[in-house]
Design goal:
Helices cover about 0% and strands about 50% of the residues. It is mostly beta strands. The protein has one domain (about 5-85): Cystine Knot Cytokines, subunit B, CATH 2.10.90. Strands 1-5 form a two-stranded antiparallel ribbon. A two-stranded antiparallel sheet has the order 2-3. It starts with a strand and ends in a 6-residue tail after the last strand. One of its GO terms (molecular function) is neuropeptide hormone activity. One of its GO terms (biological process) is G protein-coupled receptor signaling pathway. This is Partner of bursicon.
Amino acid sequence: MVRSCSGDVTVNKCEGICRSQIQPSVVTATGFLKECFCCRENYLRERIVTLTHCYDPDGLRLEDEDRATMEVRLREPDECKCHKCGDYSR
């Protein structure tokens, strides 16, 4: 290991309430037909973040310009939407 880096980064997340319903049914084994929707990401976007707290293998803070920061590529939700629960085909 050459270095480890950390930093505080704010990222988007999907959370919220989606309309779901349940109704009596003579067709299903439970006697009820459920239609559940869950809030999930609809699109992800790639973003580059800079971590500014970098340390060598001995735990000493790196100060030299090339090694004092690290760029990391991450994917985060760009849009959230209510999807049918259990539908992971997206």
